[in-house]
Amino acid sequence: MLSMLLAACGGDDSEAEGDSNASDGSDSEDTEETSEGPEIGQKELTEPYVAWARETISTEMLNQLLEKVGYNVDTKQVEAGPMFSSVAEGDADFQTSTWLPATHESYWEEYGDSLEKVNQVLDQAPLALTVPSYMEDVNSVEDLKGNKELGESVDWKIIGIDPGAGIMENTGKALEEYGLDKWELTESSEAAMLTELQSAMDNEEPIVVPLWKPHWAFGSLDLKMLEDPKGIYGGDGDQIYTVARNDLKDDAPRAYKVLEQYDESYDMINEMMPKVHQEDKDVEKVVENFLNDNPDKVDEWLDGVPRED
């Protein structure tokens, strides 16, 4: 009886040891899986954007990068206000179109507590009132004040873009700060503004518009940004950030890591903008070709992230 009891006890110890070993192996396996990269979390993501020159491309870049690591991304074209509010309120997940400290200052003041700066993707993005270079006597915003000849030649109008854009808000402030009482900022869209700019330059006529870099127009047209002594447009330039709702890191860790690692250069954006906005090529194909031609850059953006493509 004693012998049988000892044998039984020994068997229990063996099973317990085996269970312990199995548990250790399982933990090791879990650790191994975790070490391969962050979990995917929620697979459906929403990315709002405004159809500005850079943003059209940058949004599609992140769309395709995230698809490579297992996400389904729904890109939604909106205006600037809804772009910020939708991410802050959790109806969307992230956007890569936040220009700070100047251009989107008012949006950041309103929604910044519900948003996280994930990464700075471009370190210098200047904005300014802009004119054709052949307008030799106009070099500063101050040159617009009381300039009757110029004002009458353009009906005292600055040709603007969509009303929700930060640069429109800054231009309205510039009219006040520089005492440009007779001048009026018109509202349209980036595409409509560029059409008027191109038409004026084809005829060597004067025109004043708000513009920013990076933008394909500076590579295709002979333009100059007006000096801004009061710094209304942010001095040397804004920085562009990818921002996300506050809890995206917990909900989609893998996506968050991609957003953390994604950055841009002027060369990269300037290479793609003319293809999309001048040659009218499909943005999805342009971005796809760039990613295929630059595997080292893709590896950098997706470093440490499991791929599913």
TrEMBL record:
Annotated compartments: Cell membrane
Alphabetical list of InterPro entries matching this protein: ABC_Gly_betaine_transp_sub-bd
Pfam families hit by this protein: OpuAC
Official protein name in the record: Glycine betaine ABC transporter substrate-binding protein
Biased composition (Acidic residues): 26-36
Keywords: Cell membrane, Membrane, Transport
Organism of derivation: Lentibacillus kimchii
Region Disordered, residue ranges: 1-47
Main location as per UniProt: membrane
Domain ABC-type glycine betaine transport system substrate-binding: 49-292
